[in-house]
Amino acid sequence: MKKKLILLVLIFLCLSSVLAYANTGGVEGLTTVKGEVVQIVTHLKPDDLNAEQGSLIQEQQIVKVRVLTGEFEGREFLVENNLGSNEYYNIRVEEGDKILLVLDTTSDQMQVYISGFSRDFYEIIIILIFILLLLSIGRMKGLKSVITLSITLLVILKVIVPAIIKGISPIMISVIGSIVITVLTLTIVSGFSRKSLSAILGTLSGVFMAAGIAYVIGTLSKLTGLNSEEAVMLMYIPGDISLNLKGILFAGILIGTLGAVMDVSMSIASSMHEIKMIKNDISKRDLFNSGMNVGRDIMGTMSNTLILAYTGASIPILIIFTAYDISFLEIINLDIIATEII
Edge to edge, what strands does the sheet with 98-104 contain? Predict the structure, then answer.
């Protein structure tokens, strides 16, 4: 037992190291570092700037910032922080705020810009809480969950995404990635057993069926893959990169279904395993019927869960549709809505 625990810890640490220290690249001459707002030197309001309604710059902060990481750690700079009429793009800072700074060394005199707030510290805290709860409640199962989560992130970030950028078919690489994630996750969580094998077969069957239906209906309904601002931005990636946007859309659908189907498959397989352990002489027909009954109960809540997840993420756009009294016919035929439904 101790040897298994040590082995799992070592695997987790190796995967964590790969994710933490992998080279993520960047734009030459531009460096992002952590910083701190030392002082708001000046804050000019619209009246001070004689700003007209709708002009690009409505307010301006002259901010003294200190670099906290990197080659220029400890150095202080005065930075112009321009605020416009659209709050979405504004970074309104106060003294003591932890921020991200972009250092532009492409010219003779280095330019410094505020690019956003530094939130990684709080993200690390909540991730640690999540991991500690998994380990304290799940113990060995919790540790396995952390490891499988690391594997999933590793496959997506270091295999699937780079392969798509290199021009490999998004659907093909997502199918391969889904198989790898499913087999490793369910095998690590439940070991080599009939229970894990049945869950693997159930997951892969369900995912490929869902993806196949989505692909056929999506093609017939002429989905473009341009269903979000991020998807549109893919068209303007610098360099000689040609991306299959429709393929990326269906790859996302494939990966998106994987978690839900894997959850259902393991729940049913685990239930059947427990029934078989308690009543060893149960017939295959009765065991199958029990599995169908469990599956039917799960379907009701799982379908609701998926609808609530999508609806919750779409509340702002639903408010827009309602506020502007857009007709149901217009809404249902929008590319973004049709994509989410399919």
Answer: 76-83, 59-67, 30-44, 98-104, 111-117
Q: Residues 186-240: pLDDT tens digits?
A: 888 888 888 889 999 999 998 888 888 888 888 888 887 776 777 777 777 776 7
CB contact at 8 A, 116 and 106: no
Q: In terms of Cα–Cα distance, which of 330, 161, 175, 176 is closest to 230?
A: 161
Q: What is the DSSP letter of 89?
A: G
Round to whole Å and give the CA distance between 271 and 290.
Answer: 9
Pair of tokens at residue 21: 């220290």
User: Any bridge partners for residue 41, and if so which?
Assistant: none
Q: How far is CA 60 from CA 49, 56, 115, 316, in A?
A: 8, 11, 15, 29
Q: Is 156 in contact with 173 (CB distance < 8 Å)?
A: no
User: Burial level of 163, CB count in 10 A (0-12/13-18/19+)?
Assistant: middle
Is 250 exposed, middle or buried, given 0-12, 13-18 or 19+ CB atoms closer than 10 A?
buried
Sequence-distant (6+) residues with CB within 8 A of 59 are 43, 44, 45, 46, 49, 51, 82, 83
pLDDT in tens, 150-169: 889 999 989 999 998 888 88
Cβ neighbors of 230 (< 8 A, separation 6 or more) are none
Token digits of residue 175: 């199918």
By the 8 A CB rule, do 64 and 76 touch? yes
* CA pair distance 169, 174, nearest whole angstrom: 8
Confirm if 66 and 81 have CB atoms less than 8 A apart: no
> Which residues does 14 contact at the CB level (< 8 Å), separation at least 6?
none
